[in-house]
Amino acid sequence: MPNFFKLKTITEMNILIIHNRYQFAGGEDAVVQAEAELLKSYGHDVSVLEVDNDSIIGVWGKAKAAFSAIYSFSSRNLVSNAIAQHNIEVVHIHNFFPLLSPSIYDACRDAVVPVVQTLHNYRLGCPKAMLFREGRVCEDCIGKALPLPGVIHGCYRGSRVESAVVASMLAVHRFRQTWQERVDGYIALTQFQKDKLVQAGLPSEKIYIKPNFVFTPDTIAKTSYDGDYALFVGRLSEEKGVATLIDAYKQGSLSIPLKIVGDGPLNDVLQQQVQTLGLENMITFLGQQNKSVVLNLMRNAQFLVFPSIWYEGFPLTIAEAFACGLPVIAAKLGSMAEIVENGVTGLHFEAGNSVDLAAKIRWTTTHAEAMIAMRKYAHSMYQTRYTPEANYHLLIEIYQQVINKNMSKLASISFSKSSLQSIHSN
């Protein structure tokens, strides 16, 4: 058998990372950058191919993006050229929507290069990518060949036309078996997310679980119990559940002040609500802050509140909290319930239930020793699961497996062809 088909132990690789950036940078963009830096730090040759949604301007731009979302020949050629130019051994796709399209999988297949795709959200089972509609969890499109409910409700950007484009993309590539045949390995961020996407039709045997990680070189976890405030860090939008958190303070008898870090479409509404309730002395809005300020706030807080009312993917904020030795009070819902262990690294409360959340906040103020233990466990969880080193070894093992499977498949094809040629020659 030629050396080309021998299974290999990976040391240094040529890796192509592909990502369609969002108009408003978020956690996913940060993960892409962090993984690229991590791989480079271990000596791999990493090429990053990114496109930006800022190029979608005007009616013509939107129309072009709509066609590109389903299949883009120019993106296919772009990826083909990048693979050839950099002698790529594995392609890691983070987001192809909307400008790149699933056509890029075909480019990888033509070049006989294995593909790994990180599932940052629920896009392959939901036009909105969130499994969330009208203030509640929604699974109406899960497993459907044509996600028609998402079109009827205009789930993508509130537009039935744009939702129809996304639904068409999902339906076309489900029919083509793109998700089943053209991706060698998926990365789900939690077991919960994997289970949901298997329900959506992705092949379970191809889905690996690898959480996100955070670089926190200057973090020194605090195990003392001297925090005098609760902390929320995140986007001020409906799905993040900030309204539930403010309503918990409305219940009364909460003695610990709350600091809210972040910005978003509900910023003015939430601040007005706090003023109307007369809670300005208890709840402070700090706006958007840089990473060093956020980490310092985490190191000195008593706990982080994470009240999201959607499933979430893998919130970097929780991993950052653990790195700082900060327990998390999280909604018992989706990935959050899996990442935060109740009574160990934080507390659970019923999602959307402000009375239950208020009760859990009160509990923290009367259980100092338990909170100290949770700080230690939270930091231990970070060291075990969410460091760059731990994440690198998980990622490289996934690359190893998909490359070796791809080579085994090529070897099998080569052997079959040789056998046929031998039979014909005889």
From TrEMBL:
It comes from Plectonema radiosum NIES-515. The lineage of its organism: Bacteria, Bacillati, Cyanobacteriota, Cyanophyceae, Oscillatoriophycideae. Residues 30-214 form the Glycosyltransferase subfamily 4-like N-terminal domain. It comes from the Bacteria. This is Glycosyltransferase family 4 protein. SUPFAM superfamilies: UDP-Glycosyltransferase/glycogen phosphorylase. Pfam families: Glyco_transf_4, Glycos_transf_1. Residues 228-379 form the Glycosyl transferase family domain. Coiled coil: none annotated.
